[in-house]
Amino acid sequence: MRTALATFGAKGYYGTTTGEVAKAAGISQAYVYRLFPDKETLFLAVVERCFARIKESLADGVAAATGTSPDAILFAMADAYAKLIAHENALLLVQMHAQCAAISEPSVREVVQRGYARTVEYVRGVSGADEESVQVFFARGMLCHLVVAVDASHVDAPWARTLSLGIRHYT
Predict the structure, then answer these.
(1) What is the pLDDT of residues 23-56, one digit of tens each?
(2) How many domains would you assign to the chain?
(3) Whose C-alpha in 9, 27, 72, 73 is 20 to 30 A from the C-alpha of 124?
């Protein structure tokens, strides 16, 4: 799964073959097919693993929170997530590829929808935050994806400073 995550992260759902995953893992393509009947099933498992890893990270944030208010918990979860995507680049890449593939692939869309449903409900439940605060939390997360993707925090230009304002970024 780690190898599939890195391989799909590098080239996305459409650009990755099961042969490339097998080669990167040092196994035969036939063995990949013993574990997963097709590329779609493998990709969906990788996306599910990403959502599980995100939830683990958010839980770490909750444990590290310095207060019990919704804002304190959301802040700690955001910090944990920012660290996660800084250190596990392939996870961020797979998330972005999955969101793009979800536009035209119903099975990917369903997995992404279920993943976000679980994640939103988890964030709402552990933080006690209202709907608007939870929405802002996720909106900032998406903005964080953009800031990382275009390396905006290292661009000295008004547009980059505007997008990066208040976004925690770890390297």
Answers:
(1) 999 999 999 999 999 999 999 999 999 999 999 9
(2) 1
(3) 9
